């Protein structure tokens, strides 16, 4: 039997009457017995406890249901309050510092409250153990079992797990009939499972409104989705076992199989349970990573079957929790509809009768530079990512990639001004309509990315044109405009996440709209030829006005073919052979800090863990915030 929230039917007896009635039972037992259980006394047969609401403590179920909802709501409100405070501080810092020099921003570089930097060091930025967080735990070169949650995430998940465990275990064990206790467990586990499905579906959505509201990355919600899902499956299995044990005691295996085969209530409940158990098995990290594309498609199908089975399971019995499972289905459906609507709107233009096309260029070092030519104008913030599909190359798959470059192109030539002096509104009205080109660098790994690269290499001149679909942009909710000092770490193709920030901050520096006075970009690559991935865009960045006043680039080639070929082009663009000393670099940046500092990283998990370790070490020295961009799956 799948997810069942077992609310009692209307009864003329009130809870106060139950308390008032003098019985030989203890006060706790009196509260634990609902009005429906009165008909199922210890002298009754076993069978009643396998049907309907007999033995189910509904007042306690409702209490725990409310506790979970209130708990999640209060947590969301606390995070929202903290985020609003951070935004208020960032806004005041931005407005106060954007007209000041770097040296004059010293006020914003000092810690004012020791509690906050200690919280960041020991909780917010801390890994679960000593260092490892985003570095994958590999079983072999071909597979891994994922990453370890951070300390803060682990605490939240532990509280969630233990609270659900406590709610499940809080039963009246003083009952004389043990099957009555199992019936109560059946009801309790069903209630908790279906309530947790609300959070499960919300956390899974790419269009989750909580992402921009709370400024929590989809990667974090995806982590929560996986662990909440495991708890839901555990509760569903307990729900089914509690029913099956009682039913077996009453009728044996023949009675169980008869109900599964002939009773729609039990049949569809079983369908939902089996679907959820299969999801759990297939979602185990080694299986998920080895067959991710297949897993994703099967996961969606099984999720639909589980929701459908639960819906019919509740519909047949006319259970009050039917409204909850309908809400779960609506949330699941809205996410699918939103994604399809976004795909249609962004990739097709009725005016131009055009669909998004992609130009794929095979680059040295096993990477593809992909430029999507969208048929309409799309605004993209720095730090955004998008999901891409390619026609003819596993089009059912979509993978997230950081947006490296955005260029808006006019559909028609710009007209000349009608008068010598025109207002900004008149200029905006005169400007032509534009379409948007969005570029990515996709490092060939396995599956779709490898196939894409191979197809491009087979073309002459190593360039492929095909239809594609753009879904996004997502993310981009972190603003670096209020920081006087920004340090950007990138590993391999992670440079695509950092380039838009560099371009935006230099332009803001020229326009006088940002507080940033120093940018340090550290890019670690394996071979020198990887520089070709972004050379075209970096050349444009390096030619921007006043770039030398604000930007310093440090390139590290870890496996150069000839170390003598590693030559620094200028004093502001330095190249070195070998791996960077993260600790030394960051401590030197802190010594020369201008205003509040933000350190961001996008790259392999090992690099992110190294950067995080040093950021935590300098928390007591000055204001240093940390942002990590990752796509763990």
From TrEMBL:
Entry-linked CDD domains: NOX_Duox_like_FAD_NADP (cd06186)
Record has Transmembrane helix as a keyword: yes
Presence of keyword Lipoprotein: no
Membrane topology type: Multi-pass membrane protein
InterPro entries, sorted: FAD-bd_8 (IPR013112), FAD-bd_FR_type (IPR017927), Fe3_Rdtase_TM_dom (IPR013130), Fe_red_NAD-bd_6 (IPR013121), Ferric/Cupric_Reductase (IPR051410), FNR_nucleotide-bd (IPR039261)
Signal peptide, first to last residue: none
A single GO cellular-component term on record: plasma membrane
The entry's keywords: Electron transport, Ion transport, Membrane, Oxidoreductase, Transmembrane, Transmembrane helix, Transport
SUPFAM superfamilies in the record: Ferredoxin reductase-like, C-terminal NADP-linked domain (SSF52343)
Compartmental location: Membrane
GO terms for MF: ferric-chelate reductase activity
One of the Pfam families matching this protein, by short name: NAD_binding_6
Transmembrane segments: 67-85, 152-170, 190-206, 227-245, 265-284, 291-312
Boundaries of every FAD-binding FR-type domain copy: 330-480
GO biological process, alphabetically ordered: copper ion import; intracellular iron ion homeostasis; iron ion transport
Chief subcellular location: membrane
UniProt record similarity statement: Belongs to the ferric reductase (FRE) family.
Protein's name in the database: Ferric reductase transmembrane component
Organism encoding this protein: Lachnellula occidentalis
Gene that this sequence comes from: FRE3_2
């Amino acid at each position: 039997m799948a997810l069942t929230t077992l609310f009692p039917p209307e009864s003329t007896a009130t809870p106060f009457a139950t308390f008032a009635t003098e019985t030989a039972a203890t006060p706790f037992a009196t509260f634990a017995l609902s009005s429906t259980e009165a008909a199922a006394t210890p002298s009754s047969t076993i069978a009643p406890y396998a049907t309907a609401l007999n033995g189910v403590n509904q007042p306690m179920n409702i209490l725990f249901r409310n506790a979970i909802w209130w708990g999640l709501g209060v947590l969301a409100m606390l995070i929202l309050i903290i985020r609003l405070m951070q935004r208020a501080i960032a806004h005041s810092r931005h407005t106060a510092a954007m007209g000041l020099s770097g040296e004059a921003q010293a006020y914003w570089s000092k810690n004012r409250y020791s509690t906050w930097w200690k919280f960041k060091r020991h909780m917010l930025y801390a890994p679960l153990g000593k260092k490892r967080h985003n570095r994958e735990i590999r079983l072999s070169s071909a597979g891994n079992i994922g990453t370890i949650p951070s300390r803060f995430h682990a605490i939240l998940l532990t509280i969630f797990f233990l609270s659900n465990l406590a709610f499940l275990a809080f039963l009246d064990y003083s009952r004389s009939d043990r099957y009555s206790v199992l019936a109560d467990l059946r009801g309790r586990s069903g209630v908790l499972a279906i309530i947790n499905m609300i959070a499960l579906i919300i956390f899974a959505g790419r269009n989750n409104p909580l992402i921009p509201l709370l400024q929590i990355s989809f990667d974090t919600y995806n982590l929560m989705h996986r662990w909440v899902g495991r708890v839901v499956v555990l509760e569903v299995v307990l729900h089914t076992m509690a029913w099956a044990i009682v039913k077996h005691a009453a009728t044996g295996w023949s009675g169980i199989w008869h109900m599964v085969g002939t009773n729609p209530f039990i049949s569809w409940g079983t369908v939902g349970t089996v679907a959820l158990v299969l999801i759990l098995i297939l979602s185990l990290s080694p299986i998920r990573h080895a067959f991710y594309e297949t897993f994703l498609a099967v996961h969606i199908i099984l999720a639909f079957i589980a929701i459908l089975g639960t819906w019919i399971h509740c519909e047949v019995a006319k259970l009050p929790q039917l409204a909850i499972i309908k809400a779960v289905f609506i949330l699941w459906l809205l996410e699918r509809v939103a994604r399809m609507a976004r795909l249609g709107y962004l990739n097709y233009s009725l005016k131009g009768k055009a669909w998004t096309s992609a130009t794929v260029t095979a680059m040295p070092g096993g990477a593809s530079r992909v430029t999507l030519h969208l048929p309409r104008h799309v605004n993209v913030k720095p730090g955004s990512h998008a999901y891409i599909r390619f026609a003819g190359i596993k089009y059912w798959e979509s993978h997230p990639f950081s947006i490296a470059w955005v260029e808006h192109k006019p559909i028609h030539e710009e007209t000349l001004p009608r008068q010598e002096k025109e207002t900004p509104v008149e200029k905006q009205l005169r400007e032509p309509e534009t379409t948007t080109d969005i570029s990515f660098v996709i490092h060939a790994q396995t599956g779709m990315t490898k196939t894409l690269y191979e197809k491009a290499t087979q073309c002459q001149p190593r360039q492929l044109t095909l239809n594609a679909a753009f879904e996004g942009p997502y993310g981009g909710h972190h603003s670096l405009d209020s920081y006087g000092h920004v340090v950007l770490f990138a590993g391999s193709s992670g440079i695509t996440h950092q380039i838009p920030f560099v371009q935006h901050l230099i332009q803001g520096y020229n326009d006088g709209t940002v507080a940033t006075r120093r940018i340090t970009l550290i890019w670690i690559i394996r071979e020198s030829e990887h520089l070709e991935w972004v050379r075209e865009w970096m050349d444009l960045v390096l030619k921007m006005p006043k770039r030398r006043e604000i930007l310093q680039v440090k390139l590290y080639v870890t496996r150069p073919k000839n170390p003598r070929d590693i030559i620094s082009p200028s004093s502001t663009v330095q190249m070195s052979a070998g791996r960077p000393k993260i600790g030394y670099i960051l401590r030197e940046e802190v010594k020369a800090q201008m205003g509040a500092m933000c350190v961001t990283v996008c790259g392999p998990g090992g690099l992110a863990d190294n950067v995080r370790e040093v950021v935590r070490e300098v928390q007591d020295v000055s204001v240093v915030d940390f942002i990590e961009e990752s796509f763990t799956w």
